[in-house]
Amino acid sequence: MDKCIIDWNNMDNKKTNLSDYDPTVIPSGAKYRMAIVAAEWNAEITDAMLHGAYDTLVKHGVCEDNIMVCRVPGTFELTSSADILLTKRCDLDAVICIGCVIQGETRHFDFICESVANGLANVSIKHGKPVIFSVLTTNDMEQARERSGGKHGNKGVEGAVTALKMCAFNALVC
Predict the structure, then answer these.
(1) Exposure pattern of 88-116 as b/e (b: 16+ CB <10 Å)?
(2) Would you kindly state where each structural domain of the chain is located, as residue ranges?
(3) For the residues of 104-140, what is the DSSP string, one character each?
């Protein structure tokens, strides 16, 4: 229980790399099959996140032959592609969805972000398998770069770590 107590006085508020994690607590991915779906839109960002996710899965034991990489036109298409994959490929243990939506002058940003977040949650619930939201929702391109391999880490790495942990959780309760 003591591990759950937060000492607000000793918090490091200047943590910059949000993707730092303890590799010793990450479950082996040797028995898992994963899909990574990445949006083509903002490819500079999504490519970096895709590589981070892929490399992290391999680092933690997922066989390269058990990682399916798919591309879709944009972030909006992540929801339907995750649903299609989990419907047609029942051997998949998780889908990591990678996208990047950058705030513009219209409300398009709000509609896409809310739709994708809700959609991916619903796909995960429908199939009873982890569908990981590795979508950057930033104010500008610089923030996206900082979170796709820059000073704030790589959201693709975080997505892979989350997928491994959730697959292990799913295996515990099955």
Answers:
(1) eeeebbbbbbbbbbbeeeeeebeebbeeb
(2) 31-173
(3) -SSTHHHHHHHHHHHHHHHHHHHHTS-EEEEEEEESS
From residue 40, alpha-carbon distances to 67, 137, 170, 174 in Å are 18, 15, 30, 35
The phi-psi region of residue 65 (left if phi > 0; otherwise alpha if psi is between -120 and 50; otherwise beta) is alpha
pLDDT at 14: 55
Place of tokens 């909006």: 76
> Which positions are annotated as active-site residues?
108
- Dist CA 155 CA 50 (whole Å): 9
Q: What is the largest CA-CA distance in the chain?
A: 50
What is 31-173's CATH superfamily? Lumazine/riboflavin synthase (3.40.50.960)
What count of Cα atoms within 13 Å lies in the side-chain half-sphere of residue 97?
A: 30
Give whole-number Cα distances, 45 to 3, 36, 125, 136, 146, in Å: 35, 15, 28, 9, 10
Binning pLDDT at 50, 70 and 90, where does residue 83 land?
very high
